[in-house]
Amino acid sequence: MLNIEELYELAKRRRSVRGYDFNEGKSIPEEYIQKILEIAHWAPSAGNGQPWQFIVIKDQAMREKIVELFLKQLEPKREMEAALRGERNINSPGFKNAPVFILVIGDPRVNEAYPVRTREEKGFQHFITGLANATMLIHLAVASLGMGSQYVSDASSPYMATMLKAYLGIPDHFKVYELIPIGYLKSPVPPPPRLALEELVHYESFDPAKSRSNEQMKEFIFSITRRGAYGKRDRNKKEE
Ligand SMILES: Cc1cc2nc3c(=O)[nH]c(=O)nc-3n(C[C@H](O)[C@H](O)[C@H](O)COP(=O)(O)O)c2cc1C
């Protein structure tokens, strides 16, 4: 059994990796993939609906096609960003050298596992939470094996999800949830900063002193969150 210090280390060390070292000597053993998916399928899900299914993609030609899809769907995303915010550096296919992609898809029919009121009130939320839990376990399992993984959430954008369904023969009623490239790291990835725990934790009741003003939120969004996410840097910092 993992002890709490080991769990802490694993949670802390897991990183979103956007650059992979692909060479044959470092291809991922099949037992690793099996183990990662075994772990993922023990995730909790509402009503034990187990909404997840996993598509393992190793074929290089298919991975290249998926990278092409990703780049294509990025064009309007970049354009939209530039139009409203004047920013262009939004994302890049840093995952293109990852030797294995796992696509997490979900079957929304599992929502019938919930009581009717639950289905009506929060069917979608429950469905997504189940998929997120399985996805999180994949990321942790990968990290425990000394490898890296990434969330490619644009896989669920309408164009990319539709094309993935067509390329991979996924029945239309499925939700394409997340693409997870997996591989060995090209170089170590420094951890993006986290807020201090004491800013986040309230005891017994909400502590108003920990409320963040709009100004503080803005500062947070434009500095802390930009270090790591989307490969962007803190706009207030010249170099890290
Ligand atoms: C729901 C969700 C969607 C994400 N989508 C993307 C994505 O599309 N591309 C990406 O590079 N990272 C994505 N990330 C990764 C986050 O940017 C990353 O978790 C965050 O910057 C913290 O870095 P860390 O994962 O290394 O701790 C996503 C993470 C989550 C939880």
Which helices and strands occur, and which strands form pairs?
Layout: H1 4-13, H2 30-40, E1 52-57, H3 60-85, E2 100-106, H4 116-144, E3 148-149, H5 158-168, E4 175-183, H6 214-222
Antiparallel strand pairs: 1-2, 2-4, 3-4
Helix pairs in contact: 2-4, 3-5
Residues 15-16, 18, 91, 150-154, 192, 228-229 line the site of flavin mononucleotide (FMN).
Overview features:
NADH Oxidase; 240 residues; 40% helix; 6 helices; 4 strands; four-stranded antiparallel beta sheet; alpha+beta; binds flavin mononucleotide; disordered C terminus; globular
Descriptive account of the structure:
By secondary structure, the protein is of the alpha+beta class. It folds into two domains: 188 residues, NADH Oxidase, CATH 3.40.109; 48 residues, no CATH class. It has six helices and four strands, in the order ααβαβαβαβα. Strands 1-2-4-3 form a four-stranded antiparallel sheet, sandwiched between helices. Helix 3 packs antiparallel against helix 5. The longest helix is centred in the middle third of the chain and has 29 residues. The protein is globular, with a radius of gyration of 19 Å. The C terminus is likely disordered. The protein binds flavin mononucleotide. Flavin mononucleotide binds next to loops.
